[in-house]
Amino acid sequence: xxxAPAAGAFLLxxxxxxxxxxxxxxxxxxxxxxxxxxxxxxVRSGSLPHTLTAFGRAQPEPAAQISLMAPLSANVSELxxxxxxxxxxxxPLVKLTPTPATAASYAAAVSAEHVARDALVRTRxxxxxxxxxxxxxxxxxxxxxxxxxxxxxxxxxxxxGPTVLRAPDAAIVLTIGASAHAIVNEGSPLVELARPNxxxxxxxxxxxxxxxxxxxxxxxxxxxxxxxxxxTRVSLRGAAVDPLSGLVPIDIELPxxxxxxxxxxxxxxxxxEVRGYVIPHSAVLVDGSGATYVVQIEGGLAKxxxxxxxxxxxxxxxxxxxxxVAAPLVLAGAYQLQDGMKVRYGATAARAAR
Length: 354
Fold this sequence. Notes:
25% of the residues lie in helices and 40% in strands. It has 354 residues and is of the alpha+beta class.
């Protein structure tokens, strides 16, 4: 074994030799008699998923939303539900009582229908006596029909008396748009419902990343507050940017009962499988120019191999390069190695190298 001064002098001489004769670098390192203790692993071909992480909230898709509007101007007599409550099909939601103006309109319609009906009866009698023309009879028929239709419309709206609005399907109450004893106009939103089997996780993704997402991509959903992860799929990739968030909306399917409406969750969307050599992240080194490389062992000597990292996956990366799957890959001690240097294996690494 060389002393420290002798080893330093030898390496200095080897460096000068390599500057004049670059091809002599490997031979110089091999003949130096020095060795570096390393730990190694194996190289394998394979793939890792390319994933995007996004955050969002569970909300009903458009087909699962139910909006109940006030059918006429009315007083909100009673509210039977609260926000967040699950209701059965046919359950009472809101009781409406016509306002005085609505009640007056209904009374006028009833009176108009009676007048039109009586006029039609008289016109028919006159026509039978040849005292009215056929056009007059047709006009009386039309007036009676119009009055009857107007009265039927008001009855359908609930103008005849108190009306109870009921849930058209089993649903969850999302919002209530009016308070008890308030006066609402026709078309005012009263109750917003969501069918529990129509929830999606709506997340936002920056436009540059959204282009890689496709309908059907696998997504792993994890509730923010903790809970079981859910494996599901992308059901919609938006084709426009949300002007409020600046992100592209992505909808992810949710099984019934997986999340509550409004619950926050994280989604990891797999957009592709990147193939190549799968190696530990710690094996990838960077030289002074910023280029990435790894070190393999061939015949007990170190060999640097330039690589390109095609996917940085955390603990492991996918790389491309002229790697030899039969040659051990250096995990620890690689920064001390140069081409042609001898290596010594630790106990664990030695067993792996065999």
